[in-house]
Design goal:
Order of helices and strands: EHHEHEHEEH
CATH architecture: 3-Layer(aba) Sandwich
Radius of gyration: 14 Å
Structural class: alpha/beta
Shape: globular
CATH topology: Rossmann fold
Distance between the termini: 16 Å
Length: about 150
């Protein structure tokens, strides 16, 4: 069975409480449950990881390399715009990386318009709320098959 790693970034443990205008009221646990349901339909396994520590995120990416995951979906939150450490960790991977965001980062504050991950990601999906996660999972599975 193909293994997909879902990486949730900084402050995502506060989904459901944080800025409902941008992120809605869905919790991280609800997002993970929806992803597991779609993964089951797609015949893949999805494992989720969330941290507010940049070093822990890098270490989990290194572990993904060692575990030979088949693809990574990442919503790194604010780290997307400045974390070269996470970017360099992702660049070690030889599998598809799909960047996702619940909000449309291109219609928000100017600092959110740039992704330091963009040039190493297979693609980016943003602006569809929880569906960004589900679309990202589907894109990752399709990228594995390609």
């Amino acid at each position: 069975m193909k293994k997909i790693l879902m990486l949730h970034g900084i402050n995502h443990n506060m989904f459901g409480k944080r800025d409902p205008k941008q992120y809605g009221t869905v919790t991280l646990a609800e997002i993970d449950a929806k992803m597991r349901a779609v993964a089951k339909d797609l015949g893949v396994e999805v494992t989720s990881f969330q941290t507010n520590c940049e070093g822990a995120m890098c270490e989990r990416i290194h572990q993904a390399y060692a575990d030979r995951v088949d693809a990574v979906v990442i919503n790194a939150g604010a780290w997307t715009h400045y974390s070269y450490g996470i970017r360099d960790a992702l660049a070690i991977l030889t599998v598809p990386v799909v960047e996702i965001h619940m909000s449309n980062i291109h219609s928000r504050e100017p600092f959110r318009h740039h992704s330091v991950f963009a040039e190493i990601a297979k693609g980016q999906i943003c602006g569809f709320g929880v569906d960004s996660y589900l679309l990202g999972l589907r894109a990752a599975v399709n990228a594995i098959a390609a």
